[in-house]
Design a protein that fits this description.
Largest sheet: 3 strands, mixed
Strand content: under 5%
Low-confidence stretches: none
Helix content: 55-70%
Oligomer: single chain
Shape: globular
Strand order of the largest sheet: 3-5-4
Length: about 450
């Protein structure tokens, strides 16, 4: 394999996606997927909105779309893994841009489905979604029906999809690329200097040493300031494009889209804020207490993630992190423990710190091979262990849903984060109840969970 497209530096095994990057199997897969998307969209464009007479034809379109969706997640997940793990690889970045073009074609197909629902009576929509082959897809179809009420014309939506390739998607890719390549010069309290990827900054800001945390904060900020105009332009362009499209789609408030995507109402959101504000004195009290333990009047931003001033036991290396998550999961729910052990065996996690790796953590997966992959940068902190548990929660959620039809996988982030946060809680409870872990270490874990809330 060409060294420019090598995945050897990565920890995870991606071979079940494709034997090699841009090999014959991957190229054939892409070409067939594009051809099938175009063919299905062409067939859909010839149909009017759903009627009693054409329901069967639209059913074929919807079922083909579902299969295409699985194949698209397979390819996009694979490319996303590669470009995140090695943002310096120009071939991966080029392919990431190419997948955006394919995504635009896929978006146009979805727009045809939205069009078919837009002018259809709700009774007919219910009849259509009740068809045998669309069983367990009723919720998804109803969501599409609701979304269809805020569509522009077919031509305008097609234009939006095409412009998105070099517009909103391009700005997003730019931000991902720049942040993935970003490095900063870390000047340690003892005067030592070292070039580090920005992905390691967060862990340094959770170090017990306040001077080290401050150095990471200041040095990291300098790196971000150097690309501040680029980041600001990207974020402003993304937001501006969305607001403009909202205006043309007759969406009254910018929150309406977010509320729809989260499957909650404005009343629910307001109730959540009201609940938080009603107890605002509690986190303030916690922060004041934290400041007092540091013998300070108030804490700085780089103190928010600081652990208690307690000596941490041993070295939380990667093997120890895996053991902690596995044992906590197994004690709480053996099936979950078996799952994470299987993830370890199959090398589904890219965890190692290295240059060119994008910051953050995520879980991705394919609806075709029914597998997940976990991305994080492990820097030997308890916060990183929690991140591992969090992303493993997402992976397990996908695992238990693996045999459910693809349409049923379109769940909102509000549900997705429930699974991951629950896994975090299992880890925390497991560590706190472990008799082999000292009380001081348990206090550190509780403190970290409080920091998340505060």
């Amino acid at each position: 394999m060409d060294s420019d497209t090598s995945t050897s530096k990565m920890n995870w095994d991606l071979s079940s996606y494709f034997p090699e990057f841009n090999g014959s199997e991957m190229i054939a897969f892409k070409e067939k997927l594009k051809s099938d998307i175009d063919e299905t969209r062409d067939n859909a464009s010839k149909l009017e909105h759903i009627t009693v007479e054409n329901q069967d034809k639209w059913e074929v379109i919807f079922l083909r779309y579902e299969v295409l969706f699985s194949r698209y997640t397979h390819l996009s997940s694979y490319i996303g893994c590669l470009s995140s793990a090695d943002a310096n690889n120009e071939q991966f970045l080029k392919e990431e841009a190419n997948i955006t073009v394919l995504g635009a074609d896929f978006s146009k197909l979805k727009n045809e489905m939205l069009r078919c629902l837009q002018n259809t009576d709700v009774e007919l929509v219910n009849e259509f979604s009740g068809k045998k082959e669309l069983s367990l897809a009723k919720h998804y179809i109803n969501r599409l029906y609701e979304e269809s009420k805020f569509r522009m014309s077919r031509e305008m939506e097609a234009l939006s999809a095409d412009l998105g390739i070099n517009g909103i998607s391009a700005w997003s890719r730019l931000y991902d690329t720049v942040s993935g390549k970003l490095e900063f010069e870390m000047e340690y309290p003892d005067g030592k200097k070292e070039i580090l990827p920005i992905s390691q900054r967060r862990s340094l800001m959770e170090n017990p040493n306040r001077d080290l945390r401050k150095a990471a904060f200041v040095c990291g900020n300098k790196a971000w300031e150097e690309i501040g105009d680029i980041a600001a332009s990207a974020i402003n362009a993304i937001s501006g494009t969305r607001l403009t499209l909202n205006n043309y789609r007759k969406i009254d408030h910018f929150l309406d889209v977010a509320l729809f995507q989260a499957s909650i109402t404005k009343k629910t959101l307001e109730a959540m804020f009201e609940a938080a504000y009603s107890e605002i004195e509690l986190p303030k009290k916690i922060l004041r207490l934290k400041a007092s333990t540091m013998e300070r009047d108030q804490i700085a931003w780089f103190d928010l993630g600081a652990p208690l001033d307690i000596e941490q036991e041993g070295n939380l290396d990667w093997e120890r992190a895996k053991e902690l998550v596995s044992s906590s999961f197994s004690n709480a729910y053996p099936r979950l423990g078996e799952f994470i052990d299987d993830v370890y065996r199959k090398n589904w996690i890219d965890w190692e710190p290295r240059m060119g790796k994008r910051p953050g953590g995520f879980c991705t997966g394919s609806l075709l091979n029914k597998e997940s992959r976990i991305f994080l940068t492990y820097n030997n902190t308890i916060g990183d262990v929690l991140t591992l548990a969090h992303e493993a929660g997402h992976a397990f959620h996908s695992f238990v849903m693996r045999d459910i039809r693809p349409f049923a996988h379109n769940y909102p982030m509000t549900l997705a984060e429930s699974a991951s946060t629950f896994a975090e809680m299992i880890l925390s409870e497991g560590l706190i109840s472990d008799k082999n872990i000292k009380d001081e270490q348990k206090a550190l874990i509780l403190d970290m969970e409080i920091n998340h809330g505060a």
